[in-house]
Recover the amino acids of this structure.
């Protein structure tokens, strides 16, 4: 596997975060996130399972994020090792806790950088029970219809596609 400069990987991830922030702001649709993936990329989501191929990833973004208006995903940290990028972020729901803190649950993502501003893998790791607990505690309700994950998603780990 080729090695890429940390700077190139971090700059690509910076653009990824910028686009995600524009999506959250409503300037772009969630499918814009797929532009950061190779044609043969793999995305692994803890609820939706493994999604293979660019067009399937594009559809996944549109379907899985429907109704989550107002959620934010603030970036907290990142580390690069070779062509691997690991990031920490939050699933942040709208509003604040009574103590002023955020309604949020942490997540970690593992990426494999493929060059040319594209990733061949994103594997999101988070505690879905924690996310559901925060949703319930906050009283959050979707802005519209939510799409449920598939009934029996493939949950194979994708450490190296």
């Amino acid at each position: 596997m080729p090695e890429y400069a940390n700077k190139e990987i971090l700059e690509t991830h910076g653009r990824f975060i910028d686009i995600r922030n524009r999506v959250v702001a409503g300037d772009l649709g969630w499918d814009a996130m797929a532009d950061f993936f190779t044609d043969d990329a793999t995305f692994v989501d803890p609820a939706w399972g493994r999604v293979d191929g660019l067009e399937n990833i594009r559809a996944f973004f549109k379907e899985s994020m429907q109704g989550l208006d107002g959620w934010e995903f603030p970036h907290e940290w990142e580390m690069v090792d070779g062509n691997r990028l690991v990031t920490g972020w939050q699933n942040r729901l709208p509003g604040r806790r009574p103590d002023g803190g955020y309604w949020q649950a942490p997540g970690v993502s593992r990426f494999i950088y493929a060059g040319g501003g594209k990733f061949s893998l994103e594997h999101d790791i988070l505690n879905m029970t924690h996310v559901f607990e925060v949703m319930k505690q906050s009283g959050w309700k979707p802005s519209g219809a939510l799409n449920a994950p598939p009934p029996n998603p493939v949950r194979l780990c994708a450490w190296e596609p």
In short: The two ends are 11 Å apart (CA to CA). The chain has one domain: 6-138.
